[in-house]
Amino acid sequence: MLDVDAIQAELRASKTDGWLFYDHHHRDPIAGHVLGLGNGMVTRRWFYFLPSRGEPRKLVHRIESATLDSIPGEKSVYSGWEELHKSLKRLLGRSKTIAMQYSPQNNIPYIGLVDAGTVELIRRMGKKVVSSADLVQKFEAAWSAEQLASHLEAGKLVDSITQDAFRRAAEFVRAKKDLTEYELQQWILGRFRAHGLVSDDPPIVAVGPHSGDPHYEPKKDAPTPIRAGDLLLLDIWAKLARPGSVYYDITWVGFLGPKVPAQCARVFGIVKAAREAAVSAVVKAVAAGRAIHGWEVDRAARGVIRKAGYGKQFIHRTGHNIGQDVHGNGANMDSLETRDDRRIVPHTCFSVEPGIYLPEFGIRSEVNVYVAEGGARVTGPAQDAVLPLLA
User: What SS3 state is found at 80?
Assistant: First the structure.
């Protein structure tokens, strides 16, 4: 639900004159989430200006004049582009510094949703455009108590399904029955449906060299069998099939044999140490009331892996924000792909998932970390060692 008073208080605290929302063909889902809009028709541009003081103002096209009727504010309408430009200038009034879903140099792509031309248009009106990244963290990425409960409920189901999937793979191997990555993936999706879970994409089921590809996708028309002696990586994410629910996202690894090979065990030990270093950095900072940023968490994990000699084999960020989308719009744990300098704020959740990817196999260990007021915690079990699935 849109909380105008809370947003205006935050705008005043950050010395920002207003937050300008803009959408066209649903290009900006953040706007829809923050404003509480549905999925109605948006074939024409609309603008919603929430000033730091005073009543919000909206600008909509005459043929879609009801687009923003569900939210408060004085409404203006336009038809032609010249009328749009004049009306938009009036909408912004004397404001000077305006937040938009914009990221300088696109450093945070999840936030950089407003097209360059629209940013140019606002600047031509004499306005300074700043990033809404911190506002988005507080008013879109932060969870309610109900969302945290949905995450924990989904987590119990996902954890159980993950362990059942490992058992299923082991049973097929013991019985010398055929089972492919794709078939196990589809079985997991069936378990999702049976337990009221949904996911934006299917889980990753990867054996052997495929586990060394962080975003590997099993293919129905190119099936890979799961066999004895394989390392099996499961990356599974899902949420409850309820409005407003949020994701739970984990990665575990198992070995289809009685004893885990020494190299796999050693690499997992390094990844685990990196995971624990990242989690510890967050827990300690939050408990001490000290600010910690996404890039710092990434550095904590990456430093462990670099020291062990595998820096070049850790090819992605340490973690991502989690929300109603599995890759949410809050701070990412990243000093590699971007330098995410957003502060980690209360009531947000993110993954910590360092990995080492070799030609023969890959190891990743993923947990979710939730930050509350004055404390942070991992929301589910954390893997301690590669699972020997045929022990």
Answer: coil
pTM for this model (two decimals):
0.92
- Among the four given CATH numbers 3.40.1160.10, 3.40.1360.10, 3.30.499.10, 3.90.230.10, the one describing domain 142-388: 3.90.230.10
Q: What DSSP line would sit under 350-376, residue for residue? A: EEE--EEE-SS-EEE-BEEEEEETTEE
Can you name the residues that pair with 319 across neighbouring β-strands? 333
Antiparallel, parallel or unpaired: β 355-357 and 197-198 = unpaired
Beta-strand ranges (E) seen in 216-327 are: 231-240, 248-255, 321-322
CB contact at 8 A, 17 and 8 = no
Give residue for tokens 């995971």: 275
Phi, psi angles (nearest 5°) of residue 366: -125, 130
Q: Tens of pLDDT along 335-361?
A: 999 999 999 999 999 999 999 999 999
Would you call 194 helix, strand, or coil by DSSP? helix
CA distance 383 to 377: 15
Phi-psi region of 168 (alpha: psi -120 to 50; beta: other; left: phi over 0): alpha
- CATH 3.40.640.10 is right for the domain spanning 4-140: no
Q: Cβ atoms within 10 A of the Cβ of 310, count?
A: 20
H helix intervals, 69-217: 81-92, 116-124, 133-136, 145-174, 181-194
What's the farthest any 2 CA atoms get from each other in the chain? 74
Rounded to whole angstroms, the Cα distance separating 332 from 295 reads 8
Q: Nearest Cα to 203, choosing from 69, 64, 366, 355?
A: 366
CA distance linking residue 16 with residue 246, whole number of Å: 30
Q: pLDDT digits over 166-193, tens only? A: 999 999 999 999 999 999 999 999 999 9
Q: Which residue has the tokens 């589809």?
A: 186
